[in-house]
Amino acid sequence: MLASLWGRKTKIYSLLPLLRSRTHAPRLQPGVQSDPTAEQRRRGKEGTSSSGNYVDGAPPPPLLPSDRGSFPSLAPLSANPSSPPTHAMEVTMDPLFLAWSYSRRRKLQQCSDICCLGLKTRALTEMVYIDEVEVDQEGIAEMMLDESSIAQVARPGTSLRLPGTSQGGGPTAAVRPMTQAGRPITGFVRPSTQSGRPGTMEQAIRTPRTASTARPVTSASGRFIRLGTASMLTNPEGPFINLSRLNLAKYSQKPNLSRTLFEYIFHHENDVKNALDLAAQATEHAQFKDWWWKVQLGKCYYRLGLYREAEKQFRSALNQQEVVDTFLYLAKVYQRLDQPITALNLFKQGLDHFPGEVTLLTGIARIHEEMNNISSATEYYKDVLKQDNTHVEAIACIGSNHFYTDQPEVALRFYRRLLQMGVYNCQLYNNLGLCCFYAQQYDMTLSSFERALALVDNDEEQADVWYNIGHVAVGIGDLTLAYQCFKLSLAFNNDHAEAYNNLAVLELRKGRIEQSKAFLQTAASLAPHMYEPHFNLSILSEKIGDLQSSYTAAQKSEDAFPEHVDTQQLLKQLRQHFAVV
């Protein structure tokens, strides 16, 4: 009997880190307005008004200006038409204070147009600033040409590059979908979440379908070079600051200006070499007692790939001043060196100095999740929610874990909480639809999927939603609708391996063996990290008498999921048959 994805829970979407706030129509608020004609109204009621144009002697209420622009505003006429209109005296603000006002209100372009050197460099830096702690994406060059690892064959549970087995009773690959790296899909998309450590260049270039962030399109150095081209847009005649003519030794002795200049060179110009020279001279001028400059030196060394030098600078900065960001930078260095245990100990050391810090707790939970220790990750995410009950990543990951552990009702509560917080996107409604279906709340299932289809941004999301609707159709027994949904999924995304696998099962039920075999081969080539297409192809080949192909496919299924009992039994039968022959 063929195994398909029907026996497995469908794929829960990872929520995007970008929140979309709802837009509300402008609302008029009641207020009390002063009426300058109150005395005239009182006199009109007493019959003293001589105009005769008012009803009961009361003047009409004054016209309020419309917020929606329905009527044009009327300008009052002057007493003498020939006299020029009087204008109010124009009050100008000091340019420096105006520039500070623009900077505080995040109007950075207006700020850079009028402000001086220091504030302009800060405004230009803020335009292209990227948080170095969060954004860390490994490209092909970093994955394949990395020689900074300690051991190529690490022990299980001590490396982020080995898939490992499920720890702490977490869901297996039969229940929870896996990425190409062998880790379960997380509940929240972040940089390098789904990226794996490929063993070959072909595997690195191959596009896994499990997440859009899994493909290493280019190296990180190329991305930083593209970010550095923002300096060409500052002035058509050239860059704002000519770094080749800049006297770094002079500016390094000015503490108020050197820090702003360093951030401009590092983030806006992306000139790591000059930024490193400026940081080194400023550190020397501060007699090696300024922890901030040591952190900047560590960031430059990390950008250049000198991880051990970056570790020394961050360690020295922590000895002088314990700051949360320094703990995060140093932990990122250890993760790049593939030392997750050291990073965990560092985070726990930081929690001793900063109890209940959300970023440190989140870092521990992420490392446990990448090491396939889902139960420990869930506990730390719960600790995060105790400190910050609006943390989107923690809520999404806990909800995803409850869904894949056969608790859709509990997962539904977490996703409803996200909906109440203002998260309004396709992924959330897709997850709500799946939770409602498995919680047997069928009245909300299709409406949630309709909302998800209305909020899709690209064809990949459209394909995933139709794939999940196909699972709902399989659950209610409508195989014709399921066949159409899987076809629609392939129409939007021709690389959808799960849809190919399920279509192969439906084709086999109709007796189309060749079509089913073709679909299974396509699914196996598109997603070699999935065990279902390999196992189904092995069963099908064994039934039609192709034992060699069946044995090869069964071995691939065992490599993808070593704990699969049916694959082990099939391999045992094939080996016994080959031994008899």
TrEMBL record:
Region Disordered, annotated ranges: 26-86, 190-218
TPR repeat boundaries on the chain: 426-459, 463-496
GO aspect biological process, one term: non-motile cilium assembly
Domain of life, source organism: Eukaryota
Protein's UniProt name: Tetratricopeptide repeat domain 8
Compositional bias (Polar residues): 209-218
Coiled-coil regions listed in the entry: none
UniProt cross-references to InterPro entries, sorted A to Z: BBS8 (IPR028796), TPR-like_helical_dom_sf (IPR011990), TPR_rpt (IPR019734)
GO cellular component, one term: non-motile cilium
Record field: compositional bias (Low complexity): 70-81
Keywords: TPR repeat
